[in-house]
Amino acid sequence: MRIVLVGPPGAGKGTQAAFLAKNLAIPHIATGDLFRANMSQGTQLGQKAKEYMSAGQLVPDEITIGMAKDRMAQPDAASGFLLDGFPRNIAQARALDGYLDETDQKLDAVLDLEVPEDEVVKRIAGRRICRNDSSHVFHVEYSAPKTDGVCDVCGGELYQREDDREETVRKRLEVYHSETEPIIDHYKAQGLVTTIPALGAVGEVTERAMSALQRTRA
């Protein structure tokens, strides 16, 4: 299957993508991973991306699109893939359409993870990260530490990242609504979109997504 996963920041795309890709035995292609891999390997696209990022500039669409095309052309993606974070805007969606047409492939589904905006803000703004180890993540409401501000694992100080502050989250949501949300209508016109309520336990959301994909296959 060839799937695009879309949803606002804090919707749980990365978590769901990992579960779905494993269940479907297809590669999980995430934009962040593409950038890291290309830069660490020193590819031409990776070098160009690094130049823009070092200058504090946005990486142009054509570089992101090039990385995505290269990854989708790898042998492990021959029978399908799950795209997470790509396409991010209409230009990238049209480029993906063109690539799939050129390679005689088609998307099977676009899963739209739906989360109320206030819940998104609560999820992200409530995160607290350990200064000693960023893999130690807590949440003031959903997974609070035993002692406020102290990591249960190593005793390090917990802090809120700048990206997780409420005002920053709301700005990220504005960007999502203006740039990414239009791709949902783009794919609705192709009859590909299924909206997945993304509230509830991780496993419950995965079950909803898998059920939707099974209906797509039927």
Automatic annotation (TrEMBL):
Residues binding AMP: T31, R36, Q57, L58, V59, G85, F86, P87, R88, Q92, R161, R172
Pathway linked to the protein: Purine metabolism; AMP biosynthesis via salvage pathway; AMP from ADP: step 1/1
Principal place of residence: cytoplasm
GO biological process: AMP salvage
Pfam families tied to this protein: ADK (PF00406), ADK_lid (PF05191)
Catalysed reactions listed for this entry: AMP + ATP = 2 ADP
Enzyme Commission number(s) of this protein: 2.7.4.3
Keyword Transmembrane helix: no
Domain Adenylate kinase active site lid positions: 127-163
Region forming the signal peptide: none
A GO molecular-function annotation: AMP kinase activity
Keyword Kinase: yes
Keywords from the UniProt entry: ATP-binding, Cytoplasm, Kinase, Nucleotide biosynthesis, Nucleotide-binding, Transferase
Domain of life according to the entry: Bacteria
Chain spans, region NMP: 30-59
InterPro entries (alphabetical): Adenyl_kin_sub, Adenylat/UMP-CMP_kin, Adenylat_kinase_CS, Adenylate_kinase_lid-dom, P-loop_NTPase
Enzyme class (EC, first level): transferase
Function: Catalyzes the reversible transfer of the terminal phosphate group between ATP and AMP. Plays an important role in cellular energy homeostasis and in adenine nucleotide metabolism.
Known partners and oligomeric status: Monomer.
PANTHER family in alphabetical order: NUCLEOTIDE KINASE
Protein name (record): Adenylate kinase
